[in-house]
Description:
The structure holds two protein chains of two kinds.
Chain A: H1 16-23, H2 28-39, H3 42-58, H4 68-87, H5 110-113, H6 120-129, H7 132-143, H8 148-155, H9 159-177
Helix pairs in contact in A: 2-3, 2-4, 2-7, 3-4, 4-8, 6-9, 7-9, 8-9
Chain B: H1 3-14, H2 20-32, H3 34-49, H4 61-67, H5 74-80, H6 84-110, H7 117-130, E1 139-140, H8 144-150, E2 171-179, E3 182-191, E4 194-202, E5 208-215, E6 218-225, E7 228-234, H9 238-249
Antiparallel strand pairs in B: 1-2, 2-3, 3-4, 4-7, 5-6, 6-7
Amino acid sequence: MPVNIHDHPPDLPxxxxxxxxGVVLPHLDAAYNLARWLARDDADAQDVVQEALxxxxxxxxxxxxxxxxxxxxxxxxxxxxxxxxxxxPDSAREAFDDDVHVPADDQPTPEARALLALDVDSLQRxxxxxxHALRETIVLRELQECSYKEIASITGQKIGTxxxxxxxxxxxxxxxxxxxxxxxxxxxxx
Amino acid sequence: MMCHDARLLLHAYLDDELDxxxxxxxxxxxxxxxxxxxxxxxxxxxSKAMAQPALYRRAPDALRKAWTPTASAPxxxxxxxxxxxxALAMAAGFVAALLLTAPAWFYVSQRQDAGTNTEISDVVSxxxxxxxxxxxxxxxxxxxxxxxxxxxxKLDFAPRVxxxxxxxxPLIGGRLDALEGHSVAALIYKRRLHIINLYQWPASxxxxxxxxxxxxxxxxxxxxxxxxxxxxxxxVSESELHQFVLAFQDxxxxxxxx
Lengths: 190, 258
């Protein structure tokens, strides 16, 4: 077994594998966080990240040093949707139509506002109820602290779409988190 | 601005994604419109609540271990996975990764005794990070008299800044960075298409001889002079990096901005 790093061909940039560890693996938590929120299940999320890292490793040669986190998150996202496509029957797939999910028009009453529940459990339940398209956008923004530009590049959407999805995600969350005795139920997705 | 427009822009405003003109328009609208101001306050609260660390799902240790080359437990992690094809592919991929990376890790583990190990890996990681878009430079200038004053008040020492364009290492900018808990000055030089990061921070000892190391294919040269610790990192060859270090150390060749 070669023991010396100098044995590597000089043209391979620092050997793909060694730099893979240094460049991609620091974003493991980010990858898992996104996968976990998309899959809503620990075991599925692990499968998604495993598969995504394998893909990332395979395509690492084609990664040219732009933002590694954005690159990896895009792979995680694509991996999630392609694995899901395999396991879900067509009928169960949720098509997201940006025109249908218009923001709810009614503002909560001031009394309802006081009841906005912001504990971890309520937030988690509300987030998990969002459709995937809204959930990935809000998770990338609030938990991964991605810019709109980064979100657009990860999800393959226009920046305008990112903006309106974020607005809708937050409006939906607000309705979910506002006391359930109000009319929030009306806006649940069937 | 109408409430209808504000409802969308409010979010971009909250995320600091608006240009100055739109920002101003929203600020004005929120001052005038109580309903939008209340909405804004609520969304800000929601946004803050989502920053709770408990919502961020960190990778489980098994997953991290499986991808950390020093661990010998990847097969155990693999068998726990539920989908056999993925698990098999994962195992195969891991073996491939292990084979590919083994030389580097042998090399790394051999150097564990070097002592400055964590420092070197920190420096190289920082160098790699700096190469990602928009991370390289805080101040972009080829003029040492612009770069040096830029550090004023940002550090508790005055970094030494000099342009080495005559030696073929043009200064292209500077950046604040952090290594091992210190705030450090990073100067960025170019060598053809290569980037050289030169870090400096105050040292406890007076001076120490140069020490050259390699880490994941990056060359690293450390030395201490006048109670300042210097570390140069780059993917240029060791001899070229050495040439750079000599040029930087040589006071006579170029004027130093003091």
